[in-house]
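Bit of a strange request maybe. I'm writing a small parser for structure token strings and I need a real example to test against, not something I typed by hand. Could someone generate the tokens for this chain?
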Amino acid sequence: MNILIRTAALALSLLLAACGGGAGNSAAEGPLAGASIGGPFTLTDQDGKRVSDTAFAGKYRLVYFGYTYCPDVCPVDLQKLMAGLRVLEKSDPAVAARIQPLFISIDPDRDTPAVLKSYVAAFHPRLIGLTGTPAEIAAVAKSFGVYYHKQQQDGAAEYLVDHSRATYLFGPDGKPIALIPEDGTPAEIAAELKRWAGG
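Reply from user aminoacidic:
Good idea to test on real output. This should exercise your parser:
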């Protein structure tokens, strides 16, 4: 229940930020300016290397939480998001080069670096997959306001993971800028990315 309360509180803060409820918000800053989302982390990438958030300093970060065994939503969202990034790479390669896409797993028990490596490669060559220990994933999910819960029947080996769905764009300073719509067309996603990262 505490997780649900925190998720509801985050949703309310996002709505307030999007409506300009925070002092000093402006359209140029982005609707999530001032929101308490994100923070320092150290996780393991698809090559087995330890990577911290500081490795992406100076880059815009397109961050999506999901898991490789997700039967439908995650792969569809990633396909659309990466198609949008490809459109931007063709129309404005300099802007696209400033954006680093990140896929953070909320299923650390199954999403090993080896599993992530083949998964992220299927969507985009620059997509970085990140995993970690259950404690590390719990900490990063909490700081990013991401809800997830393993749904496993007693005695069953397989399971699904219920999780919140949002794609965040963070600025070069690591601060949140906007939510990127996963349901948009590639052209719409590219336009939204350029809107915030093209300045």
